[in-house]
Amino acid sequence: MSQIAPKPSKDITELLRIMEALRTPVTGCPWDLEQDFASIVPYTIEEAYEVAEAIRIGDKVELKEELGDLLLQVVYHAQMAQEEGSFDFGDVVEAITRKMIGRHPHVFGSAEERTRGLEKGAWDRIKSAEKAQKAAERLALGIPAPEKQFLDDVPASFPALLEAEKLQRQAARVGFDWGAAAPVLAKIKEEISELEAELHAGEIAREAMEDELGDVLFAVANLARHLDILPEAALKRTNDKFRRRFAHIEAGAQQEGRPLDDLSLEEMEAYWQAAKAFDPKRQAHKR
Hints:
mainly alpha; Helix Hairpins; 14 helices; 0% strand
C-alpha cells in the first residue's frame, strides 16, 4: 500500500487507508494486528454506549468524537472481513443503502409501491424478502443456513434487560403473553415470594439465588412492557436520581469537612431524605 503519511480528512477513504495501515503485517500496530472479530466486540459495544452518553448530556463536541469512534469500529470489522475475503467497507455501505431503500417503498418506490408500502403488513413482507435475499446469498457462498428458532431474532449479545424485553415482545407476537399488567404484577409478587422462601431456608446455593432473582427481574421487565415503559429507560432514570441524591450526601459531608466514609448510615439517610424532599424532578411530578 502507499507509504504517504495519512492526514485528517473528511474523506472516508483516508480512514479506510489508516485502518489498512494499522493492520498491515510487520509495519502495522502490533495491538491492532492481534485483534479479531470477537476481541473487538466489547469495544464496539462500549463505543455505542459512549455515543448514547454524549447524547444524554447534550455535548455535541463529544458526540462528534464518539460517532467517529463508533464509525472506526465499522471500518475495523470491514477491514478484517476484507483481509479474509468475506466483504469490504463498500459492501457494508451497499448493504445498508439497499436495506434503507427496500424498507421505505413509500418514500423511494413507484406510485404503486408508495401506496402498498403504507399498507398493514408491508413491514413484515419487506423483512421476509430481506431474509430470503440473505438466504440466497448464503447459498451462493456455500454457507450453511443457520438453524434458527423463533426467538433467535433477538440477539443473545443484547444487554440482559433489553434482551428480556425483546424476548417478551417476540413471544407476544404469537400470543404467549398476559393480556394486561395486573397478572404480571401478581407474577412479580409470586417471584419475590419464591426468592424470600429461598433466603429464609438458610443455606442457599448462589446459582439458585441468582436464578430466583433473575426471575424477579424478568417479570419486572415484562411489567414495564405492559405499561409501555422501556425498562432500560426507567432504570436509567432511577440511576440518575440516585446520582443526584447521593451527590447531596457528598456535598453535606464536604460542608462538615468530613470524608464520606466518616458519616454514619443515619447521617447519610438524613441527607438522603433532604435531597429527596427537594429533588426538582420529584417536585415536578407533584405538580
